[in-house]
Specification:
Strand order of the largest sheet: 4-3-5-6-7-8-9-10
Low-confidence stretches: none
Number of domains: 2
Strand content: 25-35%
CATH architecture of the largest domain: 2-Layer Sandwich
Number of helices: 9
Mean pLDDT: 95
CATH superfamily of the largest domain: Fructose-1,6-Bisphosphatase, subunit A, domain 1
Radius of gyration: 18 Å
Protein backbone atom coordinates (compact mmCIF):
# COMPACT_ATOMS: atom_id res chain seq x y z
CA UNK A 1 0.00 0.00 0.00
CA UNK A 2 1.55 3.28 -1.11
CA UNK A 3 1.49 6.04 1.51
CA UNK A 4 1.56 9.80 1.15
CA UNK A 5 4.32 10.95 3.47
CA UNK A 6 5.19 14.37 4.91
CA UNK A 7 8.43 16.19 4.23
CA UNK A 8 8.69 17.56 7.77
CA UNK A 9 10.40 16.30 10.92
CA UNK A 10 7.73 13.66 11.51
CA UNK A 11 8.32 11.90 8.20
CA UNK A 12 10.50 9.13 9.60
CA UNK A 13 8.09 8.58 12.48
CA UNK A 14 5.16 8.18 10.11
CA UNK A 15 7.17 5.85 7.88
CA UNK A 16 7.89 3.73 10.95
CA UNK A 17 4.26 3.80 12.09
CA UNK A 18 3.17 2.51 8.70
CA UNK A 19 5.70 -0.32 8.90
CA UNK A 20 4.45 -1.11 12.39
CA UNK A 21 0.94 -1.36 10.94
CA UNK A 22 2.21 -3.79 8.29
CA UNK A 23 3.68 -6.01 11.02
CA UNK A 24 0.49 -5.76 13.06
CA UNK A 25 -1.69 -6.68 10.09
CA UNK A 26 0.38 -9.80 9.46
CA UNK A 27 -0.23 -10.99 13.01
CA UNK A 28 -3.87 -10.04 13.47
CA UNK A 29 -5.23 -11.04 10.07
CA UNK A 30 -3.61 -14.47 10.24
CA UNK A 31 -5.59 -15.28 13.41
CA UNK A 32 -8.85 -13.57 12.47
CA UNK A 33 -11.88 -15.91 12.51
CA UNK A 34 -9.69 -18.82 13.57
CA UNK A 35 -11.39 -21.81 15.11
CA UNK A 36 -8.60 -22.16 17.68
CA UNK A 37 -8.45 -18.51 18.74
CA UNK A 38 -7.48 -18.33 22.41
CA UNK A 39 -9.73 -15.99 24.42
CA UNK A 40 -9.36 -14.98 28.05
CA UNK A 41 -10.88 -12.38 30.37
CA UNK A 42 -8.90 -9.53 31.91
CA UNK A 43 -9.37 -8.05 35.36
CA UNK A 44 -11.79 -5.44 34.01
CA UNK A 45 -13.92 -8.23 32.46
CA UNK A 46 -12.96 -7.27 28.91
CA UNK A 47 -11.72 -9.94 26.53
CA UNK A 48 -8.22 -10.46 25.20
CA UNK A 49 -7.12 -12.94 22.55
CA UNK A 50 -3.81 -14.49 21.68
CA UNK A 51 -3.91 -12.26 18.58
CA UNK A 52 -4.09 -9.08 20.70
CA UNK A 53 -1.01 -10.18 22.59
CA UNK A 54 0.96 -11.31 19.54
CA UNK A 55 0.13 -8.14 17.65
CA UNK A 56 1.32 -5.87 20.44
CA UNK A 57 4.48 -7.93 20.87
CA UNK A 58 5.26 -7.57 17.16
CA UNK A 59 4.91 -3.78 17.37
CA UNK A 60 6.95 -3.53 20.56
CA UNK A 61 9.75 -5.66 19.13
CA UNK A 62 10.26 -3.27 16.23
CA UNK A 63 10.05 -0.18 18.44
CA UNK A 64 12.51 -1.54 20.98
CA UNK A 65 15.00 -2.07 18.15
CA UNK A 66 14.43 1.07 16.11
CA UNK A 67 13.36 3.57 18.78
CA UNK A 68 15.04 2.39 22.00
CA UNK A 69 14.86 5.86 23.57
CA UNK A 70 11.12 6.26 22.97
CA UNK A 71 8.48 5.15 25.43
CA UNK A 72 5.70 2.67 24.70
CA UNK A 73 2.19 2.53 26.14
CA UNK A 74 0.15 -0.43 24.94
CA UNK A 75 -3.19 -1.80 26.02
CA UNK A 76 -1.94 -5.30 26.77
CA UNK A 77 1.55 -4.77 28.21
CA UNK A 78 1.31 -1.33 29.80
CA UNK A 79 3.73 1.59 29.77
CA UNK A 80 7.50 1.71 29.74
CA UNK A 81 10.15 4.34 29.15
CA UNK A 82 9.85 7.99 28.22
CA UNK A 83 6.64 9.97 28.20
CA UNK A 84 8.24 12.76 26.13
CA UNK A 85 8.09 10.67 22.96
CA UNK A 86 5.65 7.85 23.58
CA UNK A 87 4.19 5.33 21.14
CA UNK A 88 0.59 4.57 22.11
CA UNK A 89 -0.75 1.26 20.83
CA UNK A 90 -4.06 -0.54 20.73
CA UNK A 91 -3.16 -3.81 19.00
CA UNK A 92 -6.76 -4.76 18.23
CA UNK A 93 -9.37 -2.09 18.86
CA UNK A 94 -12.69 -3.91 18.71
CA UNK A 95 -11.64 -7.20 20.26
CA UNK A 96 -15.30 -8.10 20.84
CA UNK A 97 -15.86 -7.87 17.09
CA UNK A 98 -12.62 -9.70 16.35
CA UNK A 99 -13.44 -12.72 18.48
CA UNK A 100 -16.91 -13.01 16.91
CA UNK A 101 -15.59 -12.83 13.34
CA UNK A 102 -16.99 -9.35 12.69
CA UNK A 103 -14.51 -7.45 10.46
CA UNK A 104 -14.91 -4.06 12.18
CA UNK A 105 -11.68 -4.00 14.19
CA UNK A 106 -8.32 -2.37 13.70
CA UNK A 107 -4.86 -1.61 15.00
CA UNK A 108 -4.23 1.90 16.34
CA UNK A 109 -0.68 3.28 16.44
CA UNK A 110 0.16 6.81 17.60
CA UNK A 111 3.24 8.79 18.49
CA UNK A 112 2.53 11.36 21.20
CA UNK A 113 5.04 14.08 21.99
CA UNK A 114 4.58 15.52 25.47
CA UNK A 115 1.11 13.97 25.60
CA UNK A 116 -0.12 15.30 22.25
CA UNK A 117 -0.61 12.75 19.45
CA UNK A 118 1.39 13.95 16.44
CA UNK A 119 1.35 10.82 14.26
CA UNK A 120 -1.52 8.39 13.86
CA UNK A 121 -2.09 5.24 11.83
CA UNK A 122 -5.24 3.13 11.87
CA UNK A 123 -5.27 -0.13 9.95
CA UNK A 124 -8.33 -2.34 9.43
CA UNK A 125 -6.91 -5.23 7.41
CA UNK A 126 -10.13 -7.25 7.30
CA UNK A 127 -11.61 -4.32 5.35
CA UNK A 128 -8.35 -3.71 3.45
CA UNK A 129 -8.39 -0.10 4.66
CA UNK A 130 -5.84 2.17 6.26
CA UNK A 131 -5.82 5.80 7.44
CA UNK A 132 -2.85 7.92 8.54
CA UNK A 133 -1.79 11.46 9.41
CA UNK A 134 0.99 13.52 10.92
CA UNK A 135 0.68 17.02 12.30
CA UNK A 136 0.76 19.63 9.56
CA UNK A 137 0.79 17.15 6.66
CA UNK A 138 -2.87 16.26 6.19
CA UNK A 139 -4.79 13.04 6.66
CA UNK A 140 -4.91 10.25 4.12
CA UNK A 141 -6.51 6.92 3.32
CA UNK A 142 -5.97 4.15 0.82
CA UNK A 143 -7.23 0.75 -0.19
CA UNK A 144 -5.41 -0.78 -3.17
CA UNK A 145 -5.08 2.46 -5.13
CA UNK A 146 -3.34 5.79 -4.69
CA UNK A 147 -3.73 7.60 -1.37
CA UNK A 148 -6.44 10.22 -1.21
CA UNK A 149 -6.77 13.09 1.26
CA UNK A 150 -9.40 13.05 3.98
CA UNK A 151 -11.78 15.92 4.65
CA UNK A 152 -14.46 16.16 7.30
CA UNK A 153 -17.98 17.14 6.30
CA UNK A 154 -19.30 20.65 5.75
CA UNK A 155 -22.53 19.99 7.67
CA UNK A 156 -23.24 23.14 9.69
CA UNK A 157 -26.47 22.34 11.54
CA UNK A 158 -27.16 19.85 14.31
CA UNK A 159 -30.48 19.13 12.63
CA UNK A 160 -28.61 17.80 9.59
CA UNK A 161 -25.92 15.89 11.48
CA UNK A 162 -25.22 12.17 11.46
CA UNK A 163 -23.72 10.93 14.72
CA UNK A 164 -22.29 7.78 16.26
CA UNK A 165 -22.81 7.28 19.99
CA UNK A 166 -20.95 3.95 20.41
CA UNK A 167 -23.44 2.25 22.78
CA UNK A 168 -26.50 3.00 24.90
CA UNK A 169 -25.00 1.15 27.89
CA UNK A 170 -21.86 3.27 27.75
CA UNK A 171 -23.77 6.55 27.90
CA UNK A 172 -26.06 5.16 30.60
CA UNK A 173 -23.13 4.03 32.75
CA UNK A 174 -21.63 7.53 32.41
CA UNK A 175 -24.89 9.10 33.58
CA UNK A 176 -25.72 10.64 30.21
CA UNK A 177 -28.59 8.47 28.92
CA UNK A 178 -31.06 11.37 28.94
CA UNK A 179 -28.51 13.46 27.01
CA UNK A 180 -28.15 10.71 24.42
CA UNK A 181 -31.90 10.45 23.95
CA UNK A 182 -32.15 14.21 23.54
CA UNK A 183 -29.30 14.12 21.02
CA UNK A 184 -30.99 11.36 19.03
CA UNK A 185 -34.14 13.44 18.94
CA UNK A 186 -32.29 16.46 17.60
CA UNK A 187 -29.96 15.17 14.88
CA UNK A 188 -30.82 13.80 11.44
CA UNK A 189 -29.40 10.32 12.03
CA UNK A 190 -27.96 8.37 14.95
CA UNK A 191 -26.16 5.04 14.81
CA UNK A 192 -23.66 3.08 16.90
CA UNK A 193 -20.95 2.21 14.40
CA UNK A 194 -18.51 1.48 17.19
CA UNK A 195 -14.83 1.61 18.05
CA UNK A 196 -12.21 3.21 15.81
CA UNK A 197 -14.23 2.79 12.61
CA UNK A 198 -16.59 5.57 13.65
CA UNK A 199 -13.71 8.07 13.94
CA UNK A 200 -12.47 7.12 10.49
CA UNK A 201 -15.97 7.64 9.06
CA UNK A 202 -15.89 11.07 10.68
CA UNK A 203 -12.54 11.88 9.10
CA UNK A 204 -13.92 10.80 5.71
CA UNK A 205 -16.87 13.17 6.06
CA UNK A 206 -19.45 10.40 6.43
CA UNK A 207 -20.30 11.24 10.06
CA UNK A 208 -20.40 14.58 11.85
CA UNK A 209 -19.90 13.57 15.49
CA UNK A 210 -18.57 10.66 17.54
CA UNK A 211 -18.62 10.58 21.34
CA UNK A 212 -17.82 7.94 23.93
CA UNK A 213 -16.91 7.37 27.55
CA UNK A 214 -14.58 5.17 29.59
CA UNK A 215 -11.83 5.42 26.99
CA UNK A 216 -8.11 5.05 27.64
CA UNK A 217 -5.39 6.91 25.76
CA UNK A 218 -4.77 3.95 23.46
CA UNK A 219 -8.47 3.89 22.46
CA UNK A 220 -8.29 7.32 20.84
CA UNK A 221 -4.70 8.54 20.40
CA UNK A 222 -4.21 7.36 16.82
CA UNK A 223 -7.52 8.91 15.76
CA UNK A 224 -6.59 12.37 17.05
CA UNK A 225 -4.13 13.49 14.33
CA UNK A 226 -6.25 11.84 11.62
CA UNK A 227 -9.43 13.66 12.66
CA UNK A 228 -7.65 16.98 13.26
CA UNK A 229 -5.67 16.89 10.02
CA UNK A 230 -8.90 16.10 8.16
CA UNK A 231 -10.39 19.33 9.53
CA UNK A 232 -12.19 18.03 12.60
CA UNK A 233 -11.80 18.54 16.34
CA UNK A 234 -11.31 16.08 19.17
CA UNK A 235 -11.64 17.03 22.82
CA UNK A 236 -12.93 15.41 25.96
CA UNK A 237 -16.70 15.37 26.44
CA UNK A 238 -16.21 18.54 28.53
CA UNK A 239 -14.19 20.28 25.82
CA UNK A 240 -10.70 19.84 27.24
CA UNK A 241 -7.79 19.34 24.82
CA UNK A 242 -6.54 16.07 26.30
CA UNK A 243 -6.57 12.34 25.62
CA UNK A 244 -6.50 11.48 29.33
CA UNK A 245 -10.00 12.57 30.41
CA UNK A 246 -11.61 9.13 29.85
CA UNK A 247 -14.11 10.63 27.41
CA UNK A 248 -14.01 12.01 23.91
CA UNK A 249 -16.03 14.19 21.58
CA UNK A 250 -14.99 14.26 17.94
CA UNK A 251 -16.73 16.40 15.34
CA UNK A 252 -16.33 17.79 11.85
CA UNK A 253 -14.96 20.94 13.51
CA UNK A 254 -17.73 23.23 12.33
CA UNK A 255 -20.23 21.80 14.80
CA UNK A 256 -17.93 21.21 17.76
CA UNK A 257 -19.01 24.18 19.87
CA UNK A 258 -22.67 23.58 19.00
CA UNK A 259 -22.41 19.95 20.13
CA UNK A 260 -20.66 20.95 23.36
CA UNK A 261 -23.39 23.48 24.09
CA UNK A 262 -26.19 21.04 23.30
CA UNK A 263 -24.69 18.16 25.29
CA UNK A 264 -24.17 20.33 28.38
CA UNK A 265 -27.36 22.38 28.20
Amino acid sequence: MTASLPADSLRRDLELALRLADAADAESLARFDSADLEISTKADNSHVTDADLATERAIRSILETERPDDGIFGEEYGAQGSTHRQWIIDPIDGTANYLRGVPLWGTMIALAIDGVPQVGVVSMPALQRRWWASAGSGAWTATDGEPRPLKTSSVASLDDASVSFQSIAQWSDAGHLDTLLALAGRVWRDRAYGDVFAYMLLAEGRLDMVAEFDVKEYDIAAAVPIVREAGGRMTSFDGDETISARSTLATNGILHDDFLSFLHD
